[in-house]
Each structure stands twice: as structure tokens, then as C-alpha cells.
Write a structure and sequence with these properties.
Distance between the termini: 13 Å
CATH topology: Non-ribosomal Peptide Synthetase Peptidyl Carrier Protein, Chain A
Shape: globular
Number of helices: 4
Structural class: mainly alpha
CATH class: Mainly Alpha
Strand content: under 5%
Largest sheet: none
Order of helices and strands: HHHH
């Protein structure tokens, strides 16, 4: 997992979830944050697509279980 990608992910996450200093790891999932509901998940994905100039497929979106999955997908698409 790229440190730069993770930091950019974190910045987007903080903005979308409106959190000051969340503890994020590769294993962090929506179950860890009350703010990470279905609507904020969609907003997060759209914001990440804009930030990294990428598009996620429906199959990719369905496969994401945690932050690590999202960051890994971003890294693959950004190559």
C-alpha cells in the first residue's frame, strides 16, 4: 500500500466523514465508524474517483471490505 495513496485516501475520508482525526488502517471497515453508512460510502467512492481520476466497476465496489481493499484498487488503477 503506497503511503502517498493512503494519505490522499485519508484526506478524502476525513472530508467526507467529517471526522477530525480518525484512526485508519488497512483493516478499517465501515463497521468501525458510525458515520460510514451507505450514503457516505457512495459519497466516499465518488470523491475517491475524482481525487484519483479513476472509475470503479460495480464488481470492484462489491468486493471492497476495508480501507486496504480500496487503497489497493486505487493503486492498481492509478498505475
Amino acid at each position: 500500500m503506497s503511503d502517498d495513496t493512503f494519505e490522499r485516501f485519508r484526506d478524502v475520508f476525513v472530508d467526507i466523514m467529517d471526522l477530525d482525526d480518525p484512526t485508519l488502517t488497512a483493516a478499517t471497515s465501515a463497521h468501525d465508524y458510525e458515520e460510514w453508512d451507505s450514503l457516505s460510502h457512495v459519497r466516499l467512492l465518488v470523491a475517491l474517483e475524482r481525487e484519483f481520476a479513476i472509475k470503479f466497476t460495480n464488481a470492484e465496489i462489491e468486493s471492497f471490505d476495508n480501507v486496504g481493499d480500496l487503497v489497493d484498487a486505487i493503486n492498481r488503477k492509478a498505475e
